[in-house]
Amino acid sequence: MGNTSKQNMLWLCQCLLCLLLTLASATHGQGENPNTATIAIAGPMSGTSVSVGTQFQAGVRAAIALETDGTLLGKKLIVTEFDDRCRANIALSVAEEVVRQEPKLVIGHSCSTSTLATAPVYAAQEVLQITPASTDPNITELGLKTIFRMLGRDDQQGQLAAQHILEHFPEARIGILRFPTSYSIGATEEAMQVLERAGAEIAQMTQAVASATSYLEQVLLMMEANVDVVYVVGGVLDIGVFTRQASMLRADFRIISADSLISSTFPSITGPEADDVMFTFPAEIDNQVSPERFSEIAQAIYQHRNVEARGYALLSFAAVQVWIEGVNRAGSFAAAEVAAAIRESTIETIIGDVSFDEKGDITTDYPNFTWHIWRDGESHVME
Questions:
Q1: Structural domains in the chain (count)
Q2: What is the spatial distance between Cα 203 and Cα 225, in angstroms, rounded to a whole number?
Q3: Quick one: which of 203, 209, 222, 249 has the most CB atoms within 10 Å?
């Protein structure tokens, strides 16, 4: 190609670039109405983790109804919802769609892989993000100043599980069942490291495919290894199927798990086999407010999505409270200013007084996780 042709090509590229920049400038801000402020809820609104998305919706909408008159700093609050099916590739497309609306806040995502994929997108577009459910430690190690989470981390859950096994099953043969997600791998890896350092025997470690129709193979592996306790971390539907099939085969090992089991989907799948299954989750928080106040919140949450006032519904409600307080402190919706205001001092929420470190991890007066147990179709905090 000659110099003239190269110059013509360069000129054409420059013209195209200028056109693209002009179009981008013209369309920027079209998703934002000066009289409204959008809150985007992003999470699993369908698929195997749909119960989490439903809890997000209920908590956010109830918080807006009870904590505001529908406006904030003179702007009408608008809620939009996006389904990522707990899949990172879908979540990334969702994030690109979300930022075109120029929201002031994103509540989500749920699955840690989705949050890891989307957090840089929101941060680059100066959108504040609060996740009520993602527990992967890497999320708050990204160095982003505009992301917060409302519960602890997988490494904390894994450590707690290992400590429980060492204390209550000191001579046990241990089984580990995990799935190919950062959530599952992160918690189980931490647990295995603690167990191995203590000299405990991990008799069987196996990884299964998520959303399978059967986990009989994994149940049989645990039975053949004569395990006494199985630590399994994954989606609630998958663990429900595993638990039900273990009961069908009369497996005599105990099952312990992590925060995904807070969903009432678990006993709906397993029936009475859910009894005595333990899992880690933040402490019950209805004692952080008066009974009258909690009753009001529970009624609002149920009204919006017919779900109980527990789990991720309460964490989503608290996430909106944190954002509202940050906006009021900053007198602005600008993500950087709101984030700085959130970090200024403790914020009073329905889950108690909370604060956040520079990474965006939460601090509360009570432990980040405690043990819960299923009995008669209800989850209870263990004494």
A1: 2
A2: 6
A3: 222
